[in-house]
Every structure is written in C-alpha cells, then in structure tokens.
C-alpha cells in the first residue's frame, strides 16, 4: 500500500502560516518557475482549477495563457483569497476568479475543469491521496491532475553550515506535527496510484539558489522565518526547539547567504495524472 503520513496529535493546519516572510516566497512563484512541466498541456480555452492558489501569482499566469478559458483559484484562507483577488483585479483578467475552498471537498461539478493543478499543497495535507482523488473527480475522465511538491529531505547546500542541519531536523518535526509530509516529492507517484489514477507521468525539477541576490533573498527569508513565523512559534510550543536554537538557525541562514561559494538546491516531484 502507498505511504500516507502518520496521524498528527495536532489538528491539520497550514504549517508555514502567513507571515510576510512566507508570503514573499509565495509571491515569487510563477507558472514558469513552478509549473513549467504543465505548460505544454495548456492552451487557449483550457479550464483550470488551481487548488491552494495562495496569493495568486501562478494562477494569474495561467489565466493569461489559457484565455478565454476560465481559471479559478481556491485557497483555504479568506485573507489570502482577498489578496489574490486584488492581484487579479490589478492585472485585469476577466477569465479569473478566486474562492475560499477545501481541497478535500471542492465546490465544483464532476468534470467541470480540464486541468486541476496544485503547487506545494499536498505536502501540507494529512490525506494527500484523498485530495488527489477529489481533484480527479473535478477533472473528470478526460482531464489532467497536475501537482508539484518539494522534497525537503532531498535539499542540499554548500558550504556545510551546522545550524542548517539543525534547521532541517527542527523543520521536519514541525511540519510532520501538522500531519503533512515534507518529503512529498518522492511520494507523488505513489499517492496518485493510491488515489486510483492509472496513467501517471512522474517527473522532477529543482530550484537552485546560488547568485548573491538569490542567496540574500532565500537566506534572509528563512532567517526571518526561523524566529518570527508560525514555524518559530510551533517549534517552541511543541517542544522541538528553544529560542536560542532558533536564533542559531537564523544566524546559520545569514552565514550561508553571505558565503560567496553558497549554493542550495531544492528538488521537486512533478505529476501529470489521468484516470
């Protein structure tokens, strides 16, 4: 049987929270850097449902690619949906809408979309196969379910900064305490098969942060997240780290960001699935 994350002692919720440092990383995402594997399947008129659409940057790109096809973004947070709607209004996309919704119970009829897409969503869910099954219902027998998920235990970096090893250990514990699976990328194929998909194309791609600007941005983002975001609050409240440990992690990210030889790679699993 395919792997599913173990049950958490805490209620299922979004592990990263919506601190500005987190949202900044989400707003950086585009269809090009986060859904390139899906782009060959999109054309004018394609109907797209983007589940876990966040601030809407990828969704807005989809709307431009498939117009006049309808694009709907769904997110569990009403505040984030409001932010995405503001972005949609700013770009003036008439074929775009954002709604509050539940990945497990989508407010859409069977087969009402040609593509159901999720980027960095399934690794936060306790029942990813159930969510994929629901995506498949909405995509219908001829539609596509597309997903891209990070694989945190595959992240590698240079130079070796001991505090980043501590970050990884704490991060994995915090994430799994929410019921999700931080190393989701390697499991996407298994989850799709568990969900009943019979035609599964599983690929992968990476993000690399190496230039001075990339290191400053990514390292600075995580230095702030380590001490100021929901990650920090949960790490302390759930007994995975104390304040001094989180400060060392933040210092480690700043050390890595300023290293001229600094380099970091984040692998992602990708999925194109059909019934």
Furnish the topology, listing elements before pairings.
Blueprint: H1 20-27, H2 31-34, E1 48-51, H3 57-66, E2 71-75, H4 78-91, E3 96-100, E4 115-119, H5 128-139, E5 144-150, E6 156-158, H6 162-177, H7 188-194, E7 199-209, H8 212-228, H9 230-237, H10 243-258, E8 263-274
Parallel strand pairs: 1-2, 1-4, 2-3, 4-5
Antiparallel strand pairs: 5-8, 6-8, 7-8
Helix pairs in contact: 1-8, 5-7, 6-10, 8-9, 8-10
Verbal overview:
The chain is an alpha/beta fold and 275 residues long. It is 41% helix and 19% strand. Strand 2 (71-75), helix 4 and strand 3 form a beta-alpha-beta unit. The protein starts with 19 loop residues before the first helix and ends with a strand.
Characteristics of this structure?
275 residues, alpha/beta, Rossmann fold, 8-stranded mixed β-sheet, 10 helices, 8 strands, globular, disordered N terminus
Low-pLDDT stretches are 1-11
Q: Looking at CATH, which topology would you report?
A: Rossmann fold
What is the overall pLDDT average?
A: 92
Note the overall shape: globular
Number of strands: 8
Percent of residues in helices: 40-55%
Report strand %: 15-25%
Number of domains: 1
CATH superfamily: Vaccinia Virus protein VP39
The DSSP helix count reads 10
CATH architecture: 3-Layer(aba) Sandwich
Pattern of helices and strands:
HHEHEHEEHEEHHEHHHE
């Amino acid at each position: 049987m395919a792997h599913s994350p173990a049950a958490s002692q805490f209620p299922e919720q979004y592990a990263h929270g919506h601190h500005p440092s987190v949202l900044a990383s989400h707003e950086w995402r585009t269809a090009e850097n986060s859904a390139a594997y899906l782009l060959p399947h999109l054309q004018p008129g394609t109907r797209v449902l983007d589940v876990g659409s966040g601030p809407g940057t990828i969704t807005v790109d989809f709307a431009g690619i498939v117009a006049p096809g309808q694009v709907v973004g769904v997110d569990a947070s009403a505040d984030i949906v409001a932010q995405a709607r503001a972005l949609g209004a700013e770009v003036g996309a008439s074929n775009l809408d954002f709604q509050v919704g539940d990945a497990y119970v989508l407010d859409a009829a069977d087969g009402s979309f040609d593509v159901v897409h999720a980027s960095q969503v399934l690794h936060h869910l306790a029942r990813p196969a159930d969510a994929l099954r629901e995506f498949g219902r909405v995509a219908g027998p001829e539609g596509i379910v597309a997903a891209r998920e990070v694989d945190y235990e595959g992240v590698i970096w240079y130079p070796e900064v001991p505090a980043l090893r501590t970050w990884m250990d704490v991060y994995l514990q915090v994430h799994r305490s929410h019921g999700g699976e931080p190393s989701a990328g390697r499991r996407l194929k298994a989850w799709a098969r568990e969900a009943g998909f019979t035609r599964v194309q599983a690929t992968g791609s990476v993000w690399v942060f190496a230039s001075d600007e990339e290191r400053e941005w990514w390292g600075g983002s995580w230095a702030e997240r380590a001490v100021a975001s929901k990650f920090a609050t949960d790490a302390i409240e759930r007994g995975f780290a104390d304040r001094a440990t989180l400060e060392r992690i933040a210092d480690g990210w700043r050390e890595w960001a300023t290293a001229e030889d600094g380099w970091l790679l984040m692998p992602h699993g990708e999925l194109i699935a059909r019934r």
